[in-house]
Amino acid sequence: MRSRLAAWLAHALLAGALAAGCTAPSERLRFASGPQGGAWYPLAGALKSVVEARMPGLSVQVLPGGGIANVLAVETDRAQMAFANSVSTLDAINGQPPFQNKATHVCNVATLYPQYFQVVTLADSGIASPADFRGRVLAAQQRGNTAEAITAHLLQAYGMSYRDLAGVNYGSYTDSVALMKDGNADIFTLGTSIPASAIMDLASGRDVRLVDIPDDGLARMRALNPGYERTVIPAGTYPKQDRDVLTIGYATHLIARCDLDAKIVYTVLDGLYTRRDDLAAIARALKRATVRSMGRDIGVPLHAGAAQWYREKSSGS
What we know:
Elements: H1 2-20, E1 27-32, H2 40-54, E2 58-63, H3 67-75, E3 81-85, H4 86-94, E4 106-122, E5 137-141, H5 146-157, E6 167-171, H6 173-181, E7 187-192, H7 197-205, E8 208-210, H8 215-224, E9 229-233, E10 245-257, H9 262-274, H10 276-279, H11 291-294, H12 304-315
Parallel strand pairs: 1-2, 1-3, 5-6, 5-7
Antiparallel strand pairs: 3-10, 4-7, 4-8, 4-10, 9-10
Helix pairs in contact: 1-2, 2-9, 5-8, 6-7, 9-12
């Protein structure tokens, strides 16, 4: 499966590169994904191949991005579709920080798979809960990334801000893992699927412990953003993890400009669903996607093209 998908993806990216040097087709769709090295970028590349095969007059341009940046890109029409995270999209819809204004052009297309906010510390750090973060050094994700915004909410929920830490490094997963391995950071926060390769890398060189976010912490975070959900990282997900870890969950979802042609949105959604088994080689949780799970209400207005697709699938049309 992986080798077949790798060949398919390589063909898709090559086709996109060749198309860039040819006469532009009648329509172009800018699709904001994620950083290279993450799951969103190759997933968007694979979806590009599916969509262009179904709509020969449409060219899909895959752009790098991040959860918060992608919502802003769709809102300002720098992109017409994007992957995003439910909690940051809700912040945008409600005009809450880090967004300055309410997003009025962003619509939901499909809820795809769960994401896990993960808080990692070294086993001998003495950090047992988020309340112990004061005066410690944090390795966070880059600004504009959903997990960085969640980290700020977590600190706020426990009466702190970045100013209460001894230091904050905003970098890539690779940078954060290196800081943790060298003992130059005490806490590493990230938001992704499980098991996260960055944590597996860190655990290969140091003993680590995942930090729980207990029910009272979740309640305070939900007061900041009702999109936060309780989720659990099962025991055994990471080396020497002998118990379940309570954390924050949210969803990766597909968004589009509300004024994007309904036919395009319908075609993208239908292609994604039809080829979900192939796409699951990139994002494994997609294999479990159903019409019902993809169409669940997450508090973001549903695009008209997506609404038509769900009506037809639900009625068996």
